[in-house]
Amino acid sequence: MTKIEFWQGNTACAEGALAAGCQFFAGYPITPSTEVAEHIAAKLPKRNGVFVQMEDEIASMAAIIGASWTGARAMTSTSGPGFSLMMENIGFAAMTETPCVIVNVQRGGPSTGQPTMAAQGDMMQCRFGSHGDYSIIALAPATVQEMYELTAKSFNLADQYRVPVFLMADEIVGHMRERITLPDKIEQVPRRELEKGVLPFHPNENLIPGFATFGKGHGVHVTGLTHDERGYPCTTNPNVHAHLVKRLVDKIENARTAIADYDVINPDAEKVFVSYGAPVRTVQQVLHDRNTEDIGFLRLRTIWPFAEDALKKFKNVREFLVPELNMGQIAREIERHVNVPVISLPKLGGDLHLPEELEAALVVNR
Questions:
Q1: What is the three-class DSSP state of 322?
Q2: pLDDT tens digits, 98-120
Q3: Which of 9, 36, 145, 262 counts the most CB atoms within 10 A of its CB?
Q4: Domain 3-182's class?
């Protein structure tokens, strides 16, 4: 039987993690994500889980990587400055194919910036923040309901693809309070265990190795160095490195259609909004007020890998309009995939776009 609650976004995030079977959380307090840690700290030990407040975000990321290798579903949460500190260990998680969930409730930057104000300035950082080539998965909630649902989904994606998964929220969604409908249960998709006799990093047909959980009889060497399928360092062989890195990228990029999550509204429109996170709410208000089909809307929940095929759903589009709480990070990504104008509608300072601002953009770009 479903249940109705009235929750803050960060609370819904913590509850989504618990419903998904999160067993370990390590983090360090930082505005505007602290409520995630506070809530899960109170609840996780009662469910035989472990909460640890670490000395900093570097250690937090390291701790969830270690917990994941023991078989635990592990998560941390942070915001901009802490996210930057995590980047080296995020690269380690990508190289070692460690499933884990990183929640970033974004705030204004760079540096310490605006701790209590919203932004979406970390979208490119989550994709390319650590050095080298790799691919990740990133989701962006626009409602409290999605803070719950997409957090839970993040754990399944992390385990399925053996990859760090990012929940890229923002201060507006993290701190708003809304009605939320809780399902009876959340489906849990377990990671695939390493089969007996198979090398620890030997991939299946989907380019994903089985997981050699520590303490279950497997002998496995886990290293951030370039390694062969045994897990042994092999740093001077160009072919081994190229094969490994290409696989780390392709296992996600080849699955972009399966991972994609978006809504297409009014696909015959000539003017199309594209948005994710909190700006979705303003676009929805504009469409509601107009009550017409002359404006289209691509509403993204999955940001990485980018759902480029979704753009092709709008056969008559003459321009895409992209409201973001940054200087146009995803607008530039859209430009790579289309042959029509992409109008970036940036908003900085922490406030959400107003409906009249988006209406004005429609008129200017008529």
A1: strand
A2: 999 999 999 999 999 999 999 99
A3: 36
A4: alpha beta
